[in-house]
């Protein structure tokens, strides 16, 4: 049907207005934003990636080792070896406490880190298997600051010898702490070996630990 131009213009404006209203009111949903965990973090090459490793343990003066005889290690069995090591040490002893090692007792191993002249750990380290330690004590007449242990050293020909190792601690309390830490390491090693079937005899850790006695004084 024919309409005047004015009416057609008004009709067009009305339709356009309604369309604009619809477009204005209709809201499209926003796209979802998904956050992903980073697969890698790139570090600046000029920055250090990690700090130098620090060792936990007790600063001590390693007095050395001396062979000992016998298979039964009871209270006082380390007195003679410790006196021998102590006499050698006092010949070059200084007035201050000359720590030259760091003794770190772990569940299955004992690490003796040797220190340089700056007191920092070097790459040289002696490792002792806790299962081979037959006795330890922190009760010595020559000095209450000495902690010693008897270790079964395996030679190249599969023979073995018993060596007494000794360290001087900063105090009597530090020596006793090492003795208690060694006993705890021995108990953990014993229970692990028993769980793995390497210990078949029916005995408790208290009975076996008599071989690795820690005198508290």
List keywords for this structure.
217 residues; alpha+beta; PH-domain like; 4 helices; 28% helix; PID1
General description of the model:
This protein has 217 residues and is an alpha+beta fold. It has a domain at 56-194: Roll (PH-domain like), CATH 2.30.29. Helices cover 28% and strands 25% of the residues. It has four helices and seven strands, in the order H-E-H-E-E-E-E-E-E-H-H. It has helices at residues 5-25, 79-90, 172-195, 205-208; strands at 58-68, 101-105, 109-115, 121-129, 133-137, 146-154, 160-168. A seven-stranded antiparallel beta sheet has the order 4-3-2-1-7-6-5. Strand 2 (101-105) and strand 3 form a beta hairpin. It is elongated and about 130 Å long. The protein starts with a helix and ends in a 9-residue tail after the last helix. The model is unreliable at 22-26, 33-53 and 204-214 (pLDDT under 50).
Secondary structure elements and pairings:
Elements: H1 5-25, E1 58-68, H2 79-90, E2 101-105, E3 109-115, E4 121-129, E5 133-137, E6 146-154, E7 160-168, H3 172-195, H4 205-208
Antiparallel strand pairs: 1-2, 1-7, 2-3, 3-4, 5-6, 6-7
Mean pLDDT: 75
The proportion of strand residues reads 25-35%
Secondary-structure element string: HEHEEEEEEHH
Largest sheet report: 7 strands, antiparallel
Q: What's a concise summary of this model?
A:
With 217 residues, the protein is an alpha+beta fold. 28% of the residues lie in helices and 25% in strands.
